[in-house]
Each structure stands twice: as C-alpha cells, then as structure tokens.
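Notes for week 9. Today we move from apo structures to complexes. The key idea is that a small molecule is not decoration. When we ask for a structure prediction with 2-acetamido-2-deoxy-beta-D-glucopyranose present, the ligand SMILES becomes part of the input, just like the chain. The input block below holds both the sequence and the ligand string. Read it once before you look at the output, and try to guess where the molecule might sit.
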Amino acid sequence: MVKKTLIIVWGTKCQFHSLVALLFTFVVIAIYLTGETKWRVEDQAAIKTNPFSQCNLFSGKWVYDNNSYPLYKEHECTFMWDEFACQKFGRKDLNYQNWRWQPHDCDLPRFNATELLERIRGKRVVYVGDSLNRDQWVSMVCLVESAIPPTLKSKHINGNLLIFTATEYNATIEFYWAPLLVESNSDNPVSHRLPDRIVRIKSIEKHARHWTNADILVFNSYLWWRRPKMKLLWGSFESPDQIIKEVEMLRSYEMALKTWSEWLDCHINRTKTRLFFMSMSPTHLWGAEWGRPQTENCYNETMPIFQEGYWGSGSDMRMMRIAAETIQQLRTRGLKIQMLNITQLSEYRKEAHPAIHRRQWVPLTEEQKANPTSYADCVHWCLPGVPDVWNELLYVYILLKSKTCKECLDYIAVQVQKEAETVNKELILYQGQVMMLL
Ligand SMILES: *[C@@H]1O[C@H](CO)[C@@H](O)[C@H](O)[C@H]1NC(C)=O
Ligand SMILES: *[C@@H]1O[C@H](CO)[C@@H](O)[C@H](O)[C@H]1NC(C)=O
Ligand SMILES: *[C@@H]1O[C@H](CO)[C@@H](O)[C@H](O)[C@H]1NC(C)=O
Ligand SMILES: *[C@@H]1O[C@H](CO)[C@@H](O)[C@H](O)[C@H]1NC(C)=O
Ligand SMILES: *[C@@H]1O[C@H](CO)[C@@H](O)[C@H](O)[C@H]1NC(C)=O
Ligand SMILES: *[C@@H]1O[C@H](CO)[C@@H](O)[C@H](O)[C@H]1NC(C)=O
C-alpha cells in the first residue's frame, strides 16, 4: 500500500512548488513513522483529507452574486432541454440564476470548462439515473459546451443513452436512463409513465453493461422509490413462474442498492473508474413547510430559504442513511466512490423549480390553467440553476483526483505558508494526502 502510493506521487507531472517539495519530504518521513493503517483510513476518508475539505463543501449558504452567475446563458446553450428552460417558457423573475453556493469554511474554485475537458480527455463520463440526473447532465453539457466550437461537439441518442461528444477531446458526457437503477417496467426513456410500477429487484445487468467501463459514473435514485409499497419481481417479465411481491419502501430501496453495489463490487475496474452518488434532490410541494398556506407550493416563490438547517418532509433521512451506508461499504471494499451530499443545499432553493415555466407534455385542462399551483413542477430545477452547483461540486472532486492539479498545489502552498509556524505531524499528513491523490 505504502509503496504503491509513493509511486503514484513520484509519477505525477506536477511542478512542485519548493514549499510543497519540502512538505513532500515530511510526508515521506511521516509515512514511515505512522505506517500503513493510517493511510488506509485516510484513503477511505477522501474528502476529509483534501485541502478543500478541512471544509465541508455541503455545509454553507447561498449568496446572491449576479457578477459570477449564471455560469452560462439559457438561450446560448445549444443542448438545453425544454423541461428546464424556465426563461424560454415565460419566467420573468430570473434571480434564481444568480445564487452562488458558499461553503462556510472555504471557497469553491471557479468552474473552468476547458480545465474540466482536459481532465476528461479520452474519457467517458456517464450519469445514470432518473430525470433529476438528466437535469444535472444537461447542466454539465451546458457548462462545458461554450468552450467548444460548434463543429467539434455533437449529441446523439442510442437507446437509453444520450451522448454528448467533445470531438477534439475524444471525450463523451452521457446520460443513461435507469430511474430505479435496477431493471423495471419504467425503463423506456420516453414512455415510462405507467400506473403499475414493477421492479426486477435482483437484476441490473441489462443497464449496467452499457456503463460499466466508463471512467466517471454519477448515479442517483430516490424519487421513483417514494411510494409506500413497491411491486418487486423475481424471475423475468416474460417468465410464467415469476414471483411478484409487494415490499415496503425502505426495504425495496435497500435491496435495489444492494443489487447495484454488488454489481459494482464485481465489475468495476478499481484503478480506472471513479464513482459518485448524488444524494436525494428535494422537492418543494408543501408551502406550509416554509410558512405559506397549505395549498401553496414552489409556484410564485422568488427567494431561497435562509433558515439554516431547513429540511422538508420530502427528503427521507432514512433513505439517505441507507445510501450512505451502502456507499461506505463499497469504500471499504476499495472502490473509489463518493456521495455528493446535495440535499441540504438544494432544500434551501424553493424558488428554483420550473413551476409552470416549462414544456408541458400533456396539454393542460381549463381547470389546471385556472389554478397554476395545481400543475406546478416543484421537483425538477430550472437551468441555469441548482444542478450547476451540483456539477461545480463534482468538478472539485474531479480536479482533486487528476494528475496535474495546479490549483490543488497552489492551495497547499498557501496553506503550508499559513501554517508554517504551527506545523505538526498530523497536519502534514492531512495535507500530504492531497499529493497522494494527485
Ligand atoms: C448531509 O449533509 C447534511 C447537512 O450538512 C447533514 O445533516 C447530513 O447528515 C449529511 N448526510 C450524510 C449522509 O452525510
Ligand atoms: C446585480 O444586482 C444589483 C442589485 O440587485 C443591480 O443593481 C445590478 O444592476 C445587477 N447587475 C447585473 C449585471 O445584473
Ligand atoms: C481555464 O483552464 C485552462 C486550461 O487549464 C487555462 O488555460 C485557463 O487559463 C483557465 N481559465 C481561467 C479563467 O482560469
Ligand atoms: C478515444 O477514447 C477511447 C476511450 O474512451 C479510446 O479507446 C480511443 O483509443 C481514443 N481515441 C483516440 C484517437 O485517442
Ligand atoms: C483497469 O484499468 C486500468 C487503467 O485503465 C488498466 O490498465 C487495466 O488493464 C484495467 N484492468 C482490467 C482488469 O481491465
Ligand atoms: C402569483 O404572483 C402574482 C404576481 O405577484 C399574483 O398576481 C398571483 O396572485 C400569485 N398567485 C398565487 C397563486 O399566489
């Protein structure tokens, strides 16, 4: 373990700042002093040991910043989707585009599309999940596409896959529709609005073989599980001796994530593939939760919630815990997986949903038109908007793990200077870990 980590460090092409080089010497000594166990533990703690995270990136507040935000213009993004194009569909108040996420203990690095494209050169990035994951995929495509000339980017569809290609970088950013991760009767990317949802709880291969070899995988799955009971199927949809059982929500979710994690454990190349799991995306369906009348929802909201720690009843902490535990187990099995805990920060953004300003798939009834609250979409997010910040957080993780992370090294250099007087072994170890990650 120790030996391997050292080789990784020696192998980097980073231009070491002299202070960093000095730090490096300490790290080498520290490794020999503390031995192997320590490193295993820190390996698994990833974010806690990188410089941005003596800082919890997910704990912070929204700051109005119309100088830096939005990061792109809705109408300038060639790949925008009508479900998320709130301005195009008549939203007048555009302040939802101007909020920056400010962690309490550090600043996020500014998103740099060229930098990200360099990091994913020759690679395949796949978002796997439901329409919220697709929201985030569209956001990522919009974030990077402005850095690419028109002839060098394209999009095409291949079954459940939507593929954005950055030709010059030989890189793709893809979205794979699998709202429950495992197989189900809702797997058709277009017609999946079925009254009776049936999940083939033990089967994932039909989907997974399309993304297993990706370099970066970003999963989500939450809202589609939110019903008191789920019909689970053992056997195949066609088989005559199939068994269908109704199983309660938490148990079904747990079983699905087990199927998913067992697949990853057996099939993912641990040196190649980095995995991310997005925690649940909150909804704003019940105005009473933030002090409005019972009948209201996100419709007509124009400001975020500023009450720190605000948590809506749609975000099920028990399900988050199940996901977090599954991920923790995968980490102990040596997979490079990270949960991006975006629930709390998104909870604050009651005003950032499309509400009625999006393409409607089904024509509205007179009754609905008379009462906009009744058909407001308080689940998805307008773009530019909240999913951009999810991707900015993802960007931090992708940067930190790449080989020539100049920003990381600069950051360490500054930290080392700041801490020069009080350097102790523990600190060196923690900062040194970043170099191990480079
Ligand atoms: C996610 O972040 C929130 C707020 O910072 C915290 O309360 C919650 O425990 C975190 N969840 C996990 C699984 O880390
Ligand atoms: C930013 O917001 C401030 C205050 O609302 C306003 O005065 C200013 O004109 C805005 N700037 C831009 C570029 O929109
Ligand atoms: C973005 O990244 C590219 C490639 O690393 C770099 O050349 C450029 O200066 C960066 N832009 C900004 C504004 O930092
Ligand atoms: C492009 O990337 C793929 C992997 O995604 C690789 O197999 C292929 O060789 C690359 N092509 C070029 C021209 O670099
Ligand atoms: C895993 O990925 C690494 C890096 O891409 C590659 O060198 C190695 O051959 C892969 N291992 C397997 C078993 O495919
Ligand atoms: C929404 O806001 C508009 C303009 O402020 C107001 O006229 C309308 O009554 C509001 N609708 C609801 C349902 O609150």
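The chain has two domains: 1-49+403-438, 68-402.
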